[in-house]
Amino acid sequence: FLPHLIASLEQVDQTYIMVKPDGVQRGLVGEIISRFEKKGFKLTGLKLFQCSKELAEEHYKDLKGKSFFPKLIDYITSGPVVCMAWEGVGIVASARKLIGATDPLQAEPGTIRGDLAVQTGRNVVHGSDSPENGKREIALWFNEAELCQWNPAQASWLRE
Ligand code: UDP
Ligand code: MG
Predict the structure, then answer these.
(1) Which residues form the catalytic set?
(2) Could you tell me the CATH superfamily of domain 2-144?
(3) Is the model's pLDDT at 7 over the cut of 90?
(4) Which of 32, 77, 120 is the best mutation target for the ligand 1 pocket, counting ligand atoms within 8 Å of the beta carbon and taking the most?
(5) Ordered DSSP codes for 20-43
(6) For 85-106, what is each residue's pLDDT tens digit?
(7) Which residue puts its alpha carbon closest to atom 21 of ligand 1?
(8) pLDDT for 31-68, tens place per residue?
């Protein structure tokens, strides 16, 4: 009873994960979704989407002013992306670990970027860097009607 109560008090967070245009063009969508799916996180939103310059700039607004910003916006708008909302306890930090370092050459083998990419400007995937940004980015990329609240059948096999 007590462990269940404690578990139910654990904070469930949301994170925004996005397969960038290079990941879509290279046929890595299934591979990338699989990493999060197999880990045991819950998918609550998923779509293929061509984003506008305005949306890309809003998404990356904290990086406005960096020298690479214009190229980053060109990259993110260069083709369709796959937008995903995922949910779980500790998901934001865990997803960042699964994704690996920003520079794929520094990313550990076993991570998405470590296994699948070679350059910072073509690092195949995005993941939110804080629970606050997770919420902000999901609200930015999805309408409420595109998000599903559901109870995965495997829940009791993932957590005590
Ligand atoms: N980026 C880049 N050059 C840099 C730093 C970042 O092109 O020197 C791009 C890269 O695609 C990165 C994105 O900008 O994923 C956002 O940068 P951030 O530092 O937030 O890295 P992330 O959170 O994606 O690991
Ligand atoms: Mg970031």
Answers:
(1) 126
(2) Nucleoside diphosphate kinase-like domain (3.30.70.141)
(3) no
(4) 120
(5) -HHHHHTT-HHHHHHHHHHHTPEE
(6) 999 999 999 999 999 999 999 9
(7) 102
(8) 999 999 999 999 999 999 999 999 999 999 999 999 99
Q: In this predicted structure, what is the pLDDT of residue 89?
A: 96
Sketch the domain layout of the chain as residue ranges.
2-144
Residue identified by tokens 């879509």 is 24
Atom of ligand 1 nearest to the CA of 71: 7
Distance CA 61, CA 65 (A): 9
Instruction: Using the mean position of ligand 1's atoms as its centre, give its distance from the Cα of residue 144 in Å.
Output: 28
Q: Is 60 exposed, middle or buried (0-12, 13-18, 19+ CB in 10 A)?
A: middle
Cα(84) to centroid of ligand 1, in Å? Answer: 18
Ligand 1 binding pocket, CB closer than 6 Å: 63, 68, 72, 102, 120-121, 123, 126, 129
The DSSP code for 130 is: S
